[in-house]
Amino acid sequence: MKKQALLGGILVAIASNSQAAPSSYGPIGPNIVYGDASNSNTIYSPLANPAYNALNKSDTEGYRFGLGINAQTALELKGLEGSSDNYDNNIKPYLNSNNPADANTLATNLNSFFDKYNAGKVSNISSVTVPLLIKSGVWSGGISLDYSYTAASEATFIKKGTITTAATGTDVSINSGAAALGINYKSLSEFALGYGTNIFKNNDSALSVGVTARYLSMLSNTKAIDFKTFVDDNLGSKDKNVNDYISDMNSGSSESAITADVGINWIHENYSIGLVGMNLTSPKFKIHNLSTAASSTDFASFIKSEFKLKPQYRVTGQINTASRHWTIAGSYDLVKANDLNDHDTQWWSASASYATNSAWYIPDVRVGVRGNLVGNKYTYTGVGLTFGFLNLDVATTTMDISGVSDKQKDAGAMASVGVEFDF
User: Fold this and answer.
1) Considering Cα of 115, then 119, then 120, then 121, what sign does the dihedral take?
2) Tell me, what's the pLDDT at 3?
3) What's the longest Cα–Cα distance across the chain?
4) What is each CA distance from 264 to 41, 81, 111, 144, in whole angstroms?
5) d(CA 51, CA 279)
6) Beta-bridge mates of residue 179
7) Is the N or the C terminus of the chain less surrounded, counting Cβ atoms within 10 Å?
8) Counting Cβ atoms within 10 Å, is residue 20 exposed (0-12), middle (13-18) or buried (19+)?
9) Are 337 and 263 in contact (CB under 8 A)?
10) Three-state DSSP class for 198?
11) Cβ–Cβ < 8 Å for 245, 232
């Protein structure tokens, strides 16, 4: 068998098949570090709460026109620690042997491998977002128009039964229906139109409300690849990597849905409190099964037929100086929801930031922490900088980069780069 780097191949394939998410699925741009309370100085704030479309004290000219573009990615590994070395040392050396003793050893090692890494997974969500924000006293508020393209992909080890092997001819064979690699892929194109306005205002405070209508077009595919198929396709001189099996995952028919977000925000001179609800219509999408007929039967429990975005409800709060330059912010999700890889999410966030609309040589600085109370239960620490129009943000669960790359330790990371222009 070719010396196929299975784990490395999975990582590369997952990353390369996420070509390019509004805050309802995960934080966008500088909100990675600002937190889900966001910051009124950035044009990305209406993605966190449509009430931010309303004019506020950060809009020092009494109007605002903003345009931006942002690209980001988020990667998580769970339950895969040591899997690459395990595969290289305990499985690959026996795949080209026709010795019955080696076949027995391989069976033992394969069962041990899939027992240990069953449900272990690597997942990625990547996106490109283009926000447009227009605020004016003429409209008694502001309008946001956003386009996002998001791709989410995930690979999972599946163990269903006992793996058996046999030495045949010059190679080894394994039974079908016992173990598999499960692949999920989704791509989402989204158009969002939001409006926010102040419905009550006095000298030092205002109550703003906002609503965003979102049109979603989603492609969702799933495939279970029997491990026997992977082995057979790489025996002898044959060579087929993971990407060959999932090259068709990003094609097919899409389904559309409409949903809405509603937000409210009380803004005082030195603090604000907000509440937002997202995905209020619980949009549903069909999942297309691209598995073979045999794999569809053998691994039916892995293959889902429908994906539903659950509603999210979030409270936010900020304490800030009157100028809105210095801010301490926090947020808390009131219920459990899900992301595009259908992972459970219930986020909290906290941040401290210095943000202005000043010249590029006075950078905005932000530090933050965000954690997921469910699912992987990861906690991210992040830092972000804005130089004029350029935003740079990164958050990670660990600084042990070599431990992640060499040992596949449980970890997550988010990174974002983008621009925003105010006119």
Assistant:
1) positive
2) 45
3) 87
4) 18, 43, 53, 16
5) 16
6) 159
7) C
8) middle
9) no
10) strand
11) no
CA distance 288 to 222: 6
Phi, psi of 315 (to 5 degrees): -105, 145
Token couple for 243: 């990407």
Provide the residue type at 13 as one letter. A
Query: Burial code of 41-55, b = ≥16 C-beta within 10 A, e = fewer?
Result: bbbbbbbbbbbbbbb
Distance of CA 320 to the CA centre of its chain: 30
Spatial distance between the Cα atoms of 142 and 178, rounded to a whole number of angstroms: 56
Q: How far is CA 135 from CA 16, 46, 66, 347, 389, in A?
A: 38, 12, 9, 29, 19
Structure tokens, 171:
């190679």
* HEC sequence for 350-380: EEEEECCCCCCCCCEEEEEEEEECCCCCCEE
The pair phi, psi for residue 343, each rounded to 5°, is -85, 140
Residue with tokens 């330790």: 409
Question: Burial level of 159, CB count in 10 A (0-12/13-18/19+)?
Answer: buried
- Domains of the chain listed by start with CATH number: 6-422 (2.40.160)
pLDDT recorded at residue 324: 83
Closest CA to 335 of 365, 306, 354, 315: 315
C-alpha 419/C-alpha 423 separation (Å) is: 13
* Those residues with Cβ within 8 angstroms of residue 11's Cβ, 6 or more apart along the chain or in another chain: 122
Buried b (16+ CB within 10 A) or exposed e, 221-235: bbbbbbbbbbbbbbb
Residue 367, token pair as written in the block: 């530090």
Beta-strand runs (E) in 79-140: 121-136
- In sequence order, which residues have a C-beta less than 8 Å from that of residue 226 and are 6 or more positions away? 176, 177, 179, 180, 292, 294, 295, 298, 299
pTM given for the model: 0.91
Query: What pLDDT, on the 0 to 100 scale, is given for residue 136?
Result: 86
β-pair type (288-289, 205-226): parallel
Spans of the chain below 50 pLDDT: 3-4, 16-21
Phi-psi region of 62 (alpha: psi -120 to 50; beta: other; left: phi over 0): left
* Per-residue pLDDT at 6: 62
Asked whether the beta carbons of 305 and 220 are under 8 A apart, the reply is no
b/e string for 255-285 if b means 16 or more Cβ within 10 A? bebebbbbbbbbbeeeebebbbbbbbeebeb
